[in-house]
Design brief:
Elements (H helix, E strand, L loop, with lengths): L1 H36 L2 E4 L2 E4 L12 H6 L4 E2 L7 E2 L3 E7 L2 E2 L4 H10 L5 E7 L13 E7 L6 E12 L3 E13 L2 E24 L2 E25 L4 E25 L2 E26 L6 E23 L9 E6 L2 E15 L5 E23 L2 E4 L5 E19 L4 E18 L3 E21 L2 E12 L3 H4 L3 E5 L2 E4 L7 E12 L3 E14 L4 E10 L17 E10 L2 E18 L4 E18 L12 E4 L2 E19 L6 E10 L2 E3 L2 E3 L2 E12 L2 E8 L7 E6 L5 E7 L4 E11 L14 H4 L3
Parallel strand pairs: 5-8, 25-29
Antiparallel strand pairs: 1-2, 2-7, 3-4, 4-5, 5-6, 7-8, 9-10, 9-41, 10-11, 11-12, 11-40, 12-13, 13-14, 14-15, 15-16, 15-17, 16-18, 17-18, 18-19, 18-20, 20-21, 21-22, 22-23, 23-26, 24-25, 26-27, 27-30, 28-29, 28-32, 30-31, 31-33, 33-34, 34-37, 35-36, 36-39, 37-38, 38-41, 39-40
């Protein structure tokens, strides 16, 4: 009997054990499904898109993958936006990319999506990130594998817009023992065609200009990154990137009308070329087994842009004021930047993370603008518009972050960045300025995991926006002799205060509420300033004309000057509702978002700080008043449909629409864009045919009017419809681990070139 009981007990125990194992397997199976389905989720201060688990991440490139990532969009195929408004700064493996914006986009378009593990979207970056204003960060995390070998990608693309624009590129990656590296090369040519309609005036007169611009470009770029593992804890790396762009024989041809009468024709011929070289030396040492490490960088950046133009105006009627005029202009810019930084990341056994660092940037810009005007058949220097501007800037930054998990559901991150800026600007022989200012930029992030299906977070950040270096160069770019853009060396840095509340439901639906305050705001675009210049009248030989009493005869000319300058403050309240979800066993993948914003701009421009009238001249500037309240709505709808069970045919249908958006310089008209793509994967080959902006509706129309009746309207039709065919070939070991991407010490400066 005891034996039977014992046998029964053993049998029952076996059943229980088997059942437990079965139940355990069920639990593991359920967990695995949950992990696979969490394609988009909230983690700390960022939203993570698990590319490896996404059905759309096969056979495409990183740029197209980013456009399909929740919260990220691109209308023009050249830039990336976060939540439809914030500029995106690209990081790779937590290291900021070390190249200019155009080269970066080409690199992303040539990087296979299969190399990407996940994409992190940081809408409000912490103190450790080198960003300005309300810029967000996209951190691309590459797959890791320690296999030795090599791989690469070759890509050719032909794009048909108004003109045909071919391009090609290749990238190569290798890993052998302690050495790893990657290199890339890109080349192409494109001609940009733009059609302009400009009109301005007031109730008493009107000016209109109609014309077009053809801007041919040839470019070549590339770089390399070499990484050497000194030991299991130490690494040394060197990176180099370059880009050359040549734009010769760019022609702007415009006919000008006054009060309905054709007066003259302006033709501007321009040759320009840009060279950009950057170097970065990186050293990293791991200080413990918890992940603590010390990182240091030394960087050098050299940027050179040469631009020479010849502008001439031909009279088309016999009015006395309407005569032939011409000018030569040379606008070179040279930027030298030296930078260094040291970061120390400390992790503790309690789960705390400390990050502290120091950075230094020294920048020297040289802008020697020369301008000649035609007088009596000869070109003589225009003293008023010839200037040699030297700008020097030194920035010392200190930053500290502390991050920890407070409870099982609550985690937080707090930090601050302290920046000391010392800068001088000298227009040699004319004027100059000195600016010394300090900024304390706090940061706070709180994340509350209410429930596995509900997550809530709050973030606060303070940043500044320094003017871009080309904005400081006091030179002009002419549409007509009286209609031109004017850079401003006296523009001040703007202060940004950003707050954000983010809610996520089931890792698929999200709501983002943000509020931004800007002090000492400068216009996001140029402000149109109208006025008059009264000066002695001159004859065809440049001699002043006098009346019978011996007084010079005075002549008044109206002008329209586009300038970027500080005007006051603005406030922005924005709500974004979005969804990222797959349907029908991942056959149909959707990424939808709607953004609603309410913005106020308030301030005025009462004088032009760049204006230096010559003796005998009197300039009167009409006040430019900014008092704008605007509600706007935009929507992004991305669809990817798998057309075959073999997962080798994909259809993409994307649509963007935006209502009218009021800005400081006027109201941008409604825009929309319908994009269609068809992708075929054939082994290591991928062929993509795309049509962007099928109906030519994403161009810019700006309408602006002042309380006194002065108006300024601009239509820039850039032929946005593009038809392209691209072929990509991936070769070598596709499981190769990428070389360590390195952060450059002068990253913050690159975005200002």
């Amino acid at each position: 009997m005891k034996t039977q009981i014992l046998i029964a007990a053993i049998f029952f125990s076996g059943l229980v054990t088997a059942q437990q194992k079965k139940d355990s397997l069920k639990v593991h199976s359920i967990d695995a499904i949950n992990i696979r389905k969490q394609v988009f989720k909230k983690q700390g201060d960022r939203l993570v898109y698990d590319v490896a688990s996404s059905p759309i991440a096969k056979g495409t490139n990183t740029f197209n993958l980013l456009k399909q990532t929740p919260m990220i969009s691109s209308i023009d195929g050249k830039t990336l936006k976060i939540l439809g408004k914030s500029d995106a700064i690209i990081y790779i493996n937590n290291k900021k990319t070390n190249m200019d914006s155009e080269a970066l986009i080409e690199m992303l378009k040539s990087t296979p999506s299969e190399d990407i593990q996940k994409i992190e979207v940081i809408t409000v970056p912490g103190s450790e990130f080198q960003v300005e204003s309300k810029e967000g960060v996209i951190n691309i995390v590459m797959k890791k594998n320690k296999n030795n070998g090599y791989n690469g990608t070759m890509k050719m693309q032909n794009e048909q817009g108004y003109y045909n624009n071919p391009s090609a590129g290749a990238s190569f990656n290798f890993r052998q023992g302690k050495w790893s590296g990657n290199s890339n090369i890109r080349m192409g040519s494109w001609t940009e065609r733009q059609k302009y309609t400009l009109s301005n005036g007031d109730p008493t007169f009107r000016n209109e200009s109609y014309g077009s611009n053809d801007d041919p470009n040839k470019n070549f770029g590339g770089g390399f990154n070499i990484d050497y593992e000194i030991s299991a804890k130490q690494s040394l790396g060197l990176s180099y990137n370059m880009r050359y762009n040549k734009s010769f024989n760019s022609i702007l041809d415009i006919n000008n009308w006054q009060d309905g009468v054709l007066t003259n024709q302006t033709v501007n011929y321009e040759n320009a070329q840009t060279r950009n070289h950057s170097f970065n030396l990186n050293y990293e040492i791991k200080t413990d087994s918890l992940g603590s490490k010390l990182t240091s960088n030394v960087s050098y950046l050299w940027f050179n842009r040469d631009k020479a133009s010849f502008n001439e105006t031909f009279p088309l009627n016999n009015k006395p004021k309407n005569k032939y005029s011409a000018l030569h202009q040379s606008v070179p810019q040279i930027i030298n930047n030296y930078a260094a930084n040291i970061d120390y990341l400390k992790k503790t056994a309690k789960g705390e993370t400390w990050l502290m660092g120091i950075s230094y940037n020294r920048t020297h810009t040289d802008n020697d603008t020369q301008q000649d005007k035609l007088v009596n058949g000869e070109f003589i220097p225009n003293i008023n518009q010839t200037n040699h501007f030297i700008y020097k800037e030194n920035i010392l930054g200190l930053y500290l972050n502390y991050e920890r998990k407070l409870t099982e559901k609550l985690s937080g991150k707090i930090g601050a960045r302290y920046e000391m800026t010392r800068s001088t600007g000298d227009i040699l022989g004319k004027t100059g300025f000195e600016r010394n200012y300090n900024n304390l930029l706090p940061y706070l992030n709180l994340n509350y995991a209410i429930h596995p299906d509900h997550n809530l977070s709050y973030t606060f950040s303070s940043r500044i926006r320094r003017p871009r270096f080309w904005e400081l160069n006091p030179s002009r770019t002419y549409f007509t002799p009286t209609n031109y853009t004017q850079n401003n060396p006296f523009i001040l840095a703007s202060k940004f205060y950003n707050q954000e509340l983010n809610y996520m439901y089931k890792n698929a639906f999200y709501a983002n509420l943000s509020f931004n305050i800007v002090e000492d705001a400068s216009a996001s675009d140029l402000l149109p300033l109208q006025g008059t210049v009264t000066a002695p009248k001159k004859d065809d030989e440049g001699t002043i004309i006098y009346d019978e009493d011996g007084n010079p005869v005075m002549e008044t000319t109206k002008f329209l000057r586009y300038i970027r300058t500080n005007y006051g403050k603005n406030r922005e309240l924005s709500l974004t509702l979005g969804m990222n979800k797959s349907w029908f066993e991942d056959i149909w993948t959707t990424n939808y978002s709607v953004n609603m914003g309410y913005v106020t701009y308030k301030g005025a421009v009462l004088e032009d700080p760049t204006s230096i009238p010559t003796p005998g001249e009197t300039e009167v500037l009409e006040p430019y008043i900014i008092d704008i309240k605007n509600f706007n709505v935009s929507a992004t709808i991305n669809n990817t449909v798998r057309l075959s069970s073999k997962k080798d045919w994909f259809l993409g249908v994307n649509y963007f629409i935006s209502s009218k958006v009021a800005m400081e310089g006027g109201t941008i008209g409604a825009r929309q864009s319908l994009d269609i793509s068809l992708k075929k994967i054939i082994g290591d080959w991928t062929v993509i045919a795309e049509v962007n902006d099928l109906f030519n509706q994403s161009f810019y129309r700006v309408r602006g009017i002042q309380p006194n009746g002065q108006y300024n309207n601009i239509t820039n039709f850039n032929y946005p419809r593009l038809i392209s065919i691209g072929v990509t070939y991936n070769f070598g070991n596709q499981k190769l681990k990428k070389a360590r991407e390195m952060k450059s010490a002068n990253d913050a400066v690159k975005s200002r070139t």
